[in-house]
Amino acid sequence: MDWGMENRLSRLIKSDGRCFFLPIDHGYFQGPTNRLEKPGETISPLIPYADGLFVTRGILRACVDPRNSPPVILRVSGGTSIIGPDLSHEAITTSVQEAVRLNVAAVGMSIFVGSDYEFDSLVNLGKLVNECENYGIPVMAVTAVGKEMEKRDSRYLGLCCRIAAEFGAKVVKTYWCEDFDKVVNGCPVPVVMAGGPKCETQREVFEFVHDGIQKGAIGLNLGRNVWQHNHPVAVMKALRGIIHEKASVEEAEDIFENEKKND
Predict the structure, then answer these.
(1) Which of 36, 54, 122, 126 is the Cys-Cys partner for 73 at CB 3.0 to 4.6 Å?
(2) Backbone phi, then psi, for 169, in 5-degree steps?
(3) What residues contact 16, with CB distance under 8 A and at least 6 apart?
């Protein structure tokens, strides 16, 4: 691996081989998402606990202090909104030169396997990887499912992740699912969890994250389950415990309950 590529990845993936990214890119298709109306205020107390931010260039420039920022994964795809007919109709919206200008550690884009725009998103991924290789910038592929949430099973996600790796993604962000080890085992590049099923309790979040780490994920890229929570710092510290300190679900719950008192 080229020195620049390896250096950028090492900024995101820590010496223990694990990572915890905080995505705040939801507004690129959802607009002012609940509790992310003012991104700068939302992330300010969370910055110290994030190994990286997944963010668009607009929010990066407007809301993230360049003197106090973790490494950045720049969202470079988009083109549709939540009220449009098809979320999968995306294109590359931000140039690699812009990524260099912003000194990012990686770029990220969505692929929509099985959608009407599968071909477009996969070709876009290939072109992005081609250009990013010239600058030593890693590409993170996001296995998006649009509005079809029922596709989140191991067979489908395993297909998506393998295809993303085959096209040259250095990291793949995907959803947790039952039999998650089948997804990870079929993907030759690191897998980061984006989230999982709708959870009714905080313990359920800790359970799926712990399961995913045990089954081979190197980390987490979790947003709404953190910054929409009433105690986001406590959630983040507990999740960091699972990811970086090998905490059990019970230990994560203890961290959460203790930190809530200081929140």
Answers:
(1) 54
(2) -60, 140
(3) 244
How far apart (Å, rounded) are the C-alpha atoms in residues 94 and 91? 9
Q: What share of the chain is helix, strand, coil (3-state, %, to 5)?
A: 45, 15, 40
Provide the annotated active-site residues: 173
110-159 pLDDT tens trace: 999 999 999 999 999 999 999 999 999 999 999 997 656 566 899 999 99
pLDDT per position as a tens digit, 42-56: 999 999 999 999 999
CA 254 to each of CA 153, 192, 201, 229, 251: distance values in angstroms, whole numbers, following the listed order: 31, 24, 14, 17, 5
CATH architecture of 3-200+208-223: Alpha-Beta Barrel (3.20)
Under a CB-based contact definition with an 8 Å cutoff, are residues 75 and 25 in contact?
yes
Residue 221: strand, helix, or coil: strand
